[in-house]
Write a structure and sequence with these properties.
The protein has 1177 residues and is an alpha/beta fold. 43% of the residues lie in helices and 10% in strands. The protein is built from 46 helices and 27 strands. The strands form seven sheets. Strands 5-6-4-7-8-3-9 form a seven-stranded parallel β-sheet, sandwiched between helices. Strands 12-20-19-14-18-17 form a six-stranded parallel β-sheet, with helices on both faces. The two termini are 27 Å apart.
Amino acid sequence: MVPAASIRHGQGGTIMIDVHTAEQLLDFGARIGHGPRAREQLAGAVAVHNILRKHRVAYLADEVGMGKTYVALGALALFRHYQPDFRVLVIAPRENIQKKWIKELTNFARHNVRYPDLRVVSIDHRPARPMKACDSLMEFVREVSVDPRRDFFLRLSSFSLSLGSTVESWYRLRDDLRKELPWLPDKFFDLRKKSEFKTRVAQAICCAMPEFDLVIVDEGHNLKHGLKSTASRNIVIAHAFGHPYGNDCQCVLGNYGPRAKRVLFLSATPLEESYLHIWNQLDVFGHGTVFEDLRRDDIPEVEKKRLVAEFLIRRVTTVTVAGTELTKNQYRREWRRGGLHSHDDPIRVEDDRQRLVVALVQKKVAELLGSEKFNRSFQIGMLASFESFLETARVKSETDEQENVFDDLEQTEDLSEREGIDVHDVNRITRDYRNRFGREMPHPKMDAVVEGLSRSWVTGTKSLLFVRRVASVKELKRKLDERYDDWLIRSLRERLPEGVYERFDRLVEHYRAEKKTVLDESSDDIAQPEDQDMDDDGTMKDRGGTDTFFAWFFRGDGPPGVISGANIQRRFIQRGTAYATFFEDNHTMALLGARPGSVLNALADVMGVDPSTAREEVRHCAAKYLSQARRLAGADRMEAAQAAAMEILKDLHGEIGEYAGIIWHERYKSSQKKPHASEAPDVSEWLERPTFFTELRQPDWALLREKIWPEPAAGTWREHFREQELRAQLLASAARLGHAFIDMYALTIQRIGSLDHKTLETASEENESLDLKRIQEYLDLLDRQRRISPLEREWGAFDELAAIGVNYDLIRDVNLHEISSGPLVEVPRKVQLLFRRQVVAGVTGSTKDRKTVVQQFRMPGYPLVLITTDMLQEGEDLHTFCSSVHHYGISWTPSSMEQRIGRIDRVRSQTDRRLSVLSEMPGGEDLLQVYFPYLEDTVEILQVQRVLERMNTFLRLMHEDLTIHQRDERHIDVVRELIQGRRIPEVIREPLKSAFPIPLWALKGSRTRLAVGKEDIDRTLKRFHALIDGHYDGIDIKWEPSTGNGILLGTVRLATGRGQPFALLLRSEGEFLVIRCISPVGLVDPERTMEQISESVATRRVRLGALMGRDEKSYDLTVEDDVMLRDARYDTARVTMLIRRVTEQADILEDTHLPGEDRGMKVFSEDLGQEGNHDNE
């Protein structure tokens, strides 16, 4: 290894580096392009690193969506590159963000570190340090005692230490802690008072953990209340990290003290109106002393600002449009007057009945606020009537264990406000209205929002709605579902042949009756989609539902006896139907450049045989890809024909053989059956079968293909093929499961002319010409839509598929990270989950499939509207296809409002992509839309104008202006506000300029050599591959030609005369090289025989690798071991002993469990060669 060269030092002898040095290691443009944003992130990483070196605390407060996580990871990488044993702990707000950190660190190691330096990134491009996410503090205590050399990821919520209501739960926690820390004395725990007990638990945890070189606190603003008596979670954190005021326990525990050497806070919203909020956050970790002036009232604001600028960085996000940089207040369009249709116009209540309802409710609210209890004030966001009337009819008791009325992170502790102070009065009005008029009372604001969103399915635009009340999610979804039904039923009827109208109308009546029955029986007041389970073929079975006509008619089983959308959809998925191969790909046809009717001849030509011989070879080879079933489905025959052709072609020399080998290994190798058919039928006709993708390749459809299935970017042929397949699976799933399928269904009924189930084509009627006709019809439809401007037609199949085609890289990065690197055979099943969706989705604290809903919203198409409480306010990326956010239920804090908008205002957002290609300044519709819907003649306007004022104050504070003091009041004094009059604050329109840019000193440092340079790694690889030329005393090795990718293959000739193949993989452990040896035993079915295998090795030290899962390999049991290399002079000797003990044990196992077999490298080489790609995944 190469030691760090001379360096510049800051305060305390700390290492300072500059941008040039960091750029030699880090590449922030690898995924987002090498533009201004990548340069900003690199500068941010350097500055954060140097600020932490100097002050031991840094605050990265870049505006939302600028990539703070990656900047933090860059700073971490710079520390660890020079200090390999650098300990890191990340505290994330919630589980979803905790998992996201682990994913992003993995991505960062693979893409953004230029080479494996063996400190940040291991030789196989994974993080050099293992990662551990802990679900609780107790798990953290256990894991950190087992191996503290890992990177740990905790949740902020874990520090709340929920103890329950009984003393028994306290005893359990104490006893669990003492199991891990048996030296804790009995007298240490005070079980008389909950707060004191929590403090003691936190102090004990402090003594159990090592000092971390860096603690990263994501969304640090959650700690802004500091160590107030009511902030019990923050107090637990303070004691867990050894805050000085916990020194009273020093005499008992001895080693209590600071555990966070450095702290990096991340938040786009670090404060509200006062710098005290920042000091509070520093103080939680005991780092507030140096910056004590931030909490003093006698220090001028200018001086506080200067002090904060020493450690806090905030860059302004910009979008360059037609050569002009726009800051967020300029590329956002805020609807501050409350309207939804015409900018800066309020919601108009035209209906007399609605006006009377509003007046009546406002009268009741005014009477309530005038009571002695509330004294003409209310907490912002806690009046239920602002959001809905209907759901207030069901008031939960204090003992009810259902979810809260409000789903808010900083909710009031007052029970009446938690419920909604106007719930009971509005409940009475609602019941009276329902009894008198026989229907639900209208809510003008909700109805206006629903009306405004009801064109989503016409335009394909997505919207994100934030509400405060949990019940609002359900009610808004139900109303939007009803509007969607009206559109879908009308749209379908217009496109279907006139002869099916009567049958279709009866189906609609059937649906409405069934939905009413479900609603009447549902305690949730809306029809929920039913659960999903697995089909026989391993795909997800969709049960549909009655929430929308789409769910009832196009998903699940569908209505019986008719050609429903669900019926046709199943025919695309089930193997034995007429449509089963529509969205497959004929790889043989594509590889040989042939057309239907000439593929077998083209295959025979490259094989150098006549067609009849080629047909027979395909038939013979296809047997291993067919099951022993008596009746074989058409899709299975096509799979076998393609697999057989690829297996034959891969043994040819030249490009065709090379490409066929890649296709076979990536796509068809795992299609082999166990047991397989002894003899196959003639499957050569399936080589001639046209599919959607074979036809899309033809020149006639070149412009269409360019939009929906473009050629993959440059790369290896394997990468090219995998991307092509992933793109194809996304298109196929969208076309048969998403909004696009409506067009496919209408096209089918137009061709058939009937809804009678008996008229649908069957598999027995299949032939190439019928296949081709259906494909041509669908391609014609897509191409017609392509040629017509979206402004002149409704959103259709082409638009959904084109959005996937154009934005594939973005979709892969946000949704397909795990899928894109896994076996292709798994892709269809996993991708389908992204498209089995509701038109309108809702998320609350009790939503179990929140992750799936978020992933689906990141795709084009359904869900078009996502309604959520504050559960998705932080940490989620919802920006890929959404440019509209509605603050339906307003939040009190500017930070919360900004966090909400930040879900869709991010790097590579839809708005960013749209604006960056404009050649002239954007119009209003091009901007990111931010709605604040409210009724101007109601009390609600008072809370809206207060929040908007605070949002402007926040902007001024974080940019070039001084702080404007306002009281941190959550309550609205109605009388005072009315006296001051209506004053909707105007949007700040001048360009924003950060008040906290990167200080110049933070980017300066000596231009040093890196601790480990690229040339050092090249020498390491050379050292590894030189093992082939070594002398291996006592063993006879036949080496395979080296591929130069960190893996060596060879075969040992043992004393018994048997041969045992093995692979050597280059790995690293910290700074040291590790050689892993893997030797395959064979196929022994370890799931069934593990007990016998374990018995056979009970007396020997053997490390086994058992392969479980669906991916078919040439072996499922291996013997493995590692050796660490230090002095290069002894490499061969150490590797000799490694190879000997691994291969000898593998051969013994093979002889024991597979008697008579002695399979060689030819059998295993392909799978052994892939071990480097899958090791430890």
